[in-house]
Amino acid sequence: MLSKRRLLSFAAGVALVAGASFGAAPASAQQTLRWAFQGNLNTLDPYGINETTTLGLQGNVYEGLTKRGKDLKIIPGLAERWEVLDNGLRWRFYLRKGVKFHNGNDFNADDVVFSAQRVVANNSQLTSRLSGGPEFVKVDDFTVDVKLKSPNPILHYAWDTWYIMDKEWTEANNAQIPPAPQATTPGFATINANGTGPFRITEHQLGVRTVFEKNANWWGKPEHNLDRVIFTPITSAPTRVAALLSGEVDVIDPVPLQDVPRINASANARVLEGPEVRTIYLSFDQMRPELTASSVKGKNPFKDVRVRKAFYQAVDIEAIRRQVMRGAAVPAASLISPLFFPQIEQIKRHPFDLAAANKLMDEAGYPRTGADNIRFEVDLDCPNDRYVNDGPICQAVTAMLARIGVKINLQAVPRAAFFAKINSPIYNTPFYLLGWTPGTGDAHNVLIDLMHTRTADGSGGRGQFNNGGYSNARVDALTSQVLVEIDTAKRDAMILEAFTILHNEVGYIPLHQQALAWGVAKSVELTQRADNQPLFYWVQKK
Amino acid sequence: MLAYILRSLTQATLVMLAVAFIAFSMFRYVGDPVASIVGQDATLKDRQELTESLGLNDPFPLQFVRFLGNALQGDFGISYRQGRPVAELLIERLPATIELAVISAAVALGLGLILGIYAALNRRGVIANIVMSLSLIGVSLPTFLIGIGLIFLFSVYLRWLPSFGRGEVVAFGWWTTGLLTDSGRKSLIMPVITLGFFQLTLIMRLVRAEMLEVMRTEYIKFARARGLSDGSVHFRHALRNAMVPVITITGLQLGSIIAFAIVTETVFNWPGLGALFVRSVEVVDIPVMAAYLMFVGLVFVVVNLIVDVLYFLVDPRLRGGITVPSR
């Protein structure tokens, strides 16, 4: 009995190998792209986790009503066009006809209405895609109305990563809601995928490899020449670099900054660098009457704008860009990338000026005292495995602030411990480094999450990531107005006003937008979009 | 013999409990699993609900007892990050690690014995001295450095061997092996060397030292005086007596080969248990971490048990020692 079973599995094994070698044989005629990334593709469920790379990979398989182009501009996706009616209270989406899911099912309005329910269901991590509770109504098979309680000019801004799922397939496999983290069986959609996109997944071994095959029946005109993509997670950075240099993979993401010159010097690969949309910044606890980890007792020095500005002007941003980031960063004057909000370029950084910074500290009433000749001590909380060179940035800041007599006690820890400490509900940090990408690609996200006044534990849905507790009544008012203002020019002016107030009050110290660095084989041409999504559908391989 | 084994088993159980307790209490300091499950911009309410439903708000003793109770039934829970049963994940990764560890151990033991004996018998030979000098590298260089060095020589520069992964594997039911395909065998070479090199040099130096020690004893002289052949003196008398410490060390090293596979697996992107563990630490996947540490603990305990039993077979003196334990 047992031996029979063994024999069967042996036969299955042999068949697998035969299949593999059969698949490999005509590989010379076929184009296979091999992509290595530092992290896993943990779930295929498009509502399973709100994280850029996962959503980006899924975006090769699934599609949203909208898409974003190479320059991040919103373009039609599964909706051919849309219009805003009833003074912004109703949006009408006209769906693309003749689109089929990978299993052959037709795409229609029922799938959109179903996906709208699933994305806000329990355990979905993408409920923010439909914030404000819009109501989806099927008008006919290819028309959907979205009814709103109040106007929302950015309703569809994050819909490029709200992927439409097949109602029939999901129901047939009992995956109507995303699986709970404590569920005892994996969700069907966690390990299987059925989208409308240019690629379909034919093999998924979590943590080992995922194989994407070209979808020959895709509705659009392919801009790639690939037949297959093999995605491999490779954790160790030197191994990733070695795999690229030895020609075993075609693309690696990311490249450690110190390896950039070596890859560029090699015969078969190069580094593609570009600006990313994430902004790295420092900020201070401006809320508590006394800091949690500082030598100053009985008051909070960061409530004084002069102290905040002194810290700002003591940071030599050019030195960080040149030395720590090896040139791979764009200094930022505000919390949003100009790629998302070009007018932000009107705000210029406060200049690096040690004399001015020292003078501000004197005026604020923190003279240098004691044998150490320092003004005061304070902790700096910093992750050491989250952003590009985050630990070294904090070390540099520590050294820079020593020059204005502030002794920084650096607490650089892995991200899991870091976020548990500094985020809601405890916000246990006097001074910290963090990075932020507006998930919607719109400034309102920065206003409401980072700049709006928050409650002590961050509940209430506003200012939850305003960890330092910056607060300004005018900024709060502008945040509410920006949400419902439909006139673009007025809206942009309000956004700029809010960011200008923040800049003058030094609520944050923006540092830079870090650069993306991908290692790419010379035989491959691709588009590196600033949101760092691994998109296969613009890849040409020779 | 039975009493001896029973006593070892009791000790093993205590060790496992201690491992479980230490592992479990450490997890409170690795960070917040919820933050890594839900992503950065989840609302506070979502996170609090999730913390509650995962039972992370319960008091520590309750969480520990619940974990132990489930673990005894072979249920290690569900991976926070992957949403699949932990036992299933471990079993899926087990073949890769076992294959790598067993081959490394076999190579280390086989080559270590041969080279050690050779170096002991030809103490002043040129080759023996070269081997001894080279073995210093194995003892002193850290694993990841050897691995990266090999990758750059054989993958990047010479392009003979693949730098990462297992190549094509063949499946027999739940077991997978790379030994039956060309790319699978090629993929094994560098990880096996990296993982086994330290053990190889250690075993070799140990065998040599023990052999030299034994060769100086009276009964070897006596054996020679009896006119026994070189082969008989070297292998029946000297080697057998030199083996007791070698078995101890080799046994312990087999445990550490599986445990230290973490580094080798990370460097070579080997899809085994160690790589799974490293990933789990990054995202605070507590169920996977706990199960893995329990597994490593179990490997050490079982290997020690086997080593204890092997003593009996190799060293007759121990058999007399049971009735009057010296401890």
Structural account:
The complex is a heterodimer of chains A (542) and B (327). With 542 residues, chain A is of the alpha+beta class. Chain A is 28% helix and 22% strand. In chain A, α13 (443-451) packs parallel to α15 and α14 (473-484) runs antiparallel to α15. Residues 1-28 of chain A have low confidence and may be disordered. By secondary structure, chain B is mostly helical. Chain B has a domain at 87-275: Orthogonal Bundle (MetI-like fold), CATH 1.10.3720.10. Chain B is 75% helix and 2% strand. Chain B has a two-stranded antiparallel ribbon with strand order 1-2. In chain B, a hairpin with a 2-residue loop joins β1 and β2. In chain B, α5 (86-121) packs antiparallel against α6 (126-140). Classes of the chains: A alpha+beta (542), B mainly alpha (327). At the A-B interface, α1, α6 and α12 of A face α2, α3, α7, β1 and α11 of B.
